[in-house]
Amino acid sequence: MLRTPLATELRLVGSRSYGCPTYLLFLLFLFQLVALERQVFDFLGYQWAPILANFLHIIMVILGLFGTIQYRPRYIVVYAIWTAIWVTWNIFIICFYLEVGGLSKDSELLTFNISQHQSWWSENGPGCVRKETPMIGIKGLDSHSYVSVIGCALEYRYIEVMHSALQILVALVGFVYACYVVSVFTEEEDSFDFIGGFDPFPLYHVNEKPSNLLFKQTYLPA
């Protein structure tokens, strides 16, 4: 069977357009799981600013999933732009916990100054043991006052830094692959237009002969 250039072009475009969205969908599902994991621990620590940022990130990942499933490059472009914002936010979180540029990990910046909560990992990190003592001067209450946390195998700020570093890594991977998928979708649309997919007069147009010429007979002399 002979393969024409048109058939070869369609085969190559079809294989790329099938494989690229599949890989991107897998990556986006993985990124969504990572974002949900971080959202859970930020909720436990009442970190309102990260909770809001995580919520927006989850929405943007869903938008990227929709754009990939529906072959909508514009939605994937929006997701790619968001990844740049997401990387910037996570760099700020790293600077916050490492106290870079005058930032303090003990400040209430991430809780919008409405509570004194810290990261959930500050009291529940690996190996951490909390020491509590009853509140003095308040009768009839069973509440306890947290005094100190000892025995932590890893300080909580480094756990938060590793979380943000992981988010930056997956965001960069998502940005690069999203841009690649958008380029493939765009090339596919251009190729389809080139072969006459959107042209009312196809490129390979066959001129039909009048019916009287088709049935015309030639008489040879005897």
From TrEMBL:
The chain crosses the membrane at residues 20-36, 48-69, 76-100, 165-185. It comes from the Eukaryota. GO terms for biological process: regulation of sodium ion transport. Keywords: Cell membrane, Membrane, Transmembrane, Transmembrane helix. InterPro entries: Na/K-Atpase_Interacting. It is found in: Cell membrane. GO terms for cellular component: plasma membrane. It is a multi-pass membrane protein. It holds the Pfam family NKAIN. Belongs to the NKAIN family. This is Sodium/potassium-transporting ATPase subunit beta-1-interacting protein. It comes from Python bivittatus (Burmese python).
